[in-house]
What does this fold into?
Amino acid sequence: MRNRYLDLLRALAVVRVVVYHVTGWATMTLVFPAMSVMFALAGSLMAASLHRFGTAAVGRRLRRLLPSLWVLAAVFVPAMLLTGLPLTPKVLLWLFPVSDPPANDWGALALSPIWYLRNYLWFVLVSPLAWWLFRRAPLPTLVAPYALTAAIELGLYPDPPMVVQQFGLYLGAWMLGFAHQEGMLRRLPNRFLWPTAVALVAVGGWWNFTQPGTRGFDLNGNPLANALWSAGVILVVLGREPARTAWIDRNAIFSRAVTLINRRALTVYLWHMAFVVALTPLVDVVGWSHQNPIGLAIRVVLVFALLGVVILLIGWVEDIAARRRPELIPGGRRRAAPPKAADQPVAPRAPEAGTTGERSVVPVPRAPEAGTTGERSVVPVPRASETGRTETGVRDVDAR
It folds into this structure.
């Protein structure tokens, strides 16, 4: 059964990412570190799959992850080849992006969210080993990624490969997802959880303000501050998960929006940056700068409108990848099936001669209506990420 609270967190994270990429507001990374939360949610789901399916969970996750990428590649790779991208064997990385797939200048920016799939793919592949280690030594396994990031930022491990940087930055959030799935975060007493969360946020905030990264106070330019601040937020939002979530579905429109974003999260994430890039010229044509609230609001609405079109056209690919019945707009109520003939009310029969008893009619239970369920974890002028390096020569644009 779906956890609607986790669905809500994922929906908020996806929306926050899109809005951040349109506006470029650095404070949004502090209010809600969306990418780390998304990795934590993905780690929790991966742990649940490992519980249920063992190592076969890796194949199941890849099956759900890759088809949406292939649809994106089918549109953009031919366009990039026609506009200067060399045809080399590295193009095959668009089928299985264990490293950054190649892109030309405009494609590197429009397709920058690929970094998330790359990291997600890495974490899925190492999850069986990470899960084995976590269950035997949870605290050391959880702390190791944060220690790695600290060593890099303090100069103890200078110039690490990009893959090492990314494992240090986001694998810790993935491990916190493991801890959530095991119930460890929920069992933490308030006297420990809250001081720990406050300390992590305080240290991360102090480092961010005293050692500002490549983007000023934007967490995306400061890996150590990002990792610590995000860990504190994750401890709270997952460790104090509400026991009751019926309130999420009390409003039908809100409930359906949460379900829609969850079932189309990958489509929204992969395609939104292309629309942000496409609408950027409007800044010069109409004058919608990042200092113009009305212009920003219009651009946000336009990006989500274009995403709505993409969801209608190809969003159903996510349903097929998850082996669900394809839907154009998921989240609606299904009609209850009509009762079978055997379930129809039985008309009372007249008493036979010589009898005085009456035959009682048993009320037929009504078929319950199917409820809605959720399925399945940067900028006016788009910013390039400066937190990582690619191995293919394409900038690792941080679509966070």
